Amino acid sequence: MQRTLSMAAIAALLVGAAGLAAYAAKALKMTDDEIAQKVAEVGPKQAPAKPAKPRKLLVYTRASGYYHDSIPLAAKVVQAMGRQTGAYEAVITDDPAQVTPENLKNFDAIFMDSTTGNCFLPAKSKDSAELKQEEVAKKALLEFVSGGKGLIGCHAATDCYYGWKEYGDMMGGYFISHIHRKVNVKMDDPKSPLTAMFEGKNFDISDEIYFFKDPYSREKLHLLLSLDVNQTPGFDPGKGKRADEDYAISWIHPYGKGRVFYCSFGHDDPVWFTPAVLAHYLAGIQYAMGDLKADAKASAKPATQTPATP
pLDDT tens digit string along 40-59? Predict the structure, then answer.
C-alpha cells in the first residue's frame, strides 16, 4: 500500500491539529496583526532560496466574476510570509490601474489571488476609459511575464479571461468545474524543491479542487501535484471528467523568458494556515521570481488511472 501523510498530520507537526482548527474558525475575523502572528507560527521560517536581490511581489485581488471570501486572507498571508522569510516585499491591490508597464517595473512577480472574470475591468463595465485601461493591463501583464518576470496563479486565477488565448496559455489552463471534498494528492515530481515540504508522500486535503480544460496539457507543463484517483474513494469529477484521468493541482512552466507557478489550493480558509501548503506557495513564488531553480520541462503523459471503489 502506498504511504500517505495527511495534511492534518503535517500541520500537527508544527502547531497541533486543535490549534489549526482554531485558526481556521476565526480566519475571516482576524486582524492583520493576528494573521501575521499565525503565519509566524505555522509558516516557513526561512525561504528555500536566497533572493538574488530584494524582491517585490504585486498581489492582485480583483475578481470581476465570483468573489472568493478567502481572497483578503490569502493576500495577507502571502504578504506576511514574504516579510517573515525575507523572500520578498508584497504590495496588495485590486486596482487595475496599477497594472501598467511603468508600475510593473517595480516588481519581480504578480500573484493573481483567486481573480475571476475579466479581472482588469470592473464587472460588466462598458466605460470606454476603463476598457482602454483593461487593454493596457492585459498587454502589460503579458509583456511583464514573457519579458522575464514571474506569474503566480492561486486557485481561481484559472477562471479568468476565457476569450484571451494568451492568458490561458500563460496560466497553463482554464477552469471547467470543481468538487469540494477531501481528496488524496500525489507527488508528480517528488524531487522538485517545490514539493520538498511534502516529503515525497501522498497526503489528504479538504478544499475546493479544480478541474481544467484546454490549453491544459502535460505536454506543455511540468506537473508538481495532482489528484490521485486511486486513493480517493468515491471520486466523481462530474462534468469535469477527463478521458485521461489527469486532474492537476499545481504546476510550473516557462513562458517566454519568464516563469509561471499555479496551484489550485486556496478556496477554504484552513488551507492558508496549513504549513506544507504555505511552504509550497512560497517555493512557487520564489521559482516565479527566478530565485529558486527547478526542473520545468514538460511532464510525460500520465498512465490511465482506475478510480478506487467506494
Answer: 999 999 999 999 999 999 99
